[in-house]
Design brief:
The chain is mostly helical. The chain has one domain. 75% of the residues lie in helices and 0% in strands.
């Protein structure tokens, strides 16, 4: 996750210095990195939820 966040900050910095030709390309890369970070957050939430039971287990008859 740290690598993605680092790349995101680098891409934001690069946007300030790019011309129009490369601006759209860099915007696309930023979108991809944000998507990957979102997926990572979702995976963490799912894993945390699976570790913590949300209800008491049923009784077998």
């Amino acid at each position: 996750m740290q690598l993605c966040e680092q790349r995101l900050s680098e891409a934001h910095r690069d946007l300030e210095t790019l011309d129009e030709k490369y601006f759209r390309s860099k915007q696309g890369k930023i979108g991809e990195i944000r998507f990957m970070l979102g997926l990572e957050e979702t995976v963490k939430a799912v894993l945390n939820r699976s570790k913590t039971p949300s209800s008491t287990p049923g009784y077998e008859m």
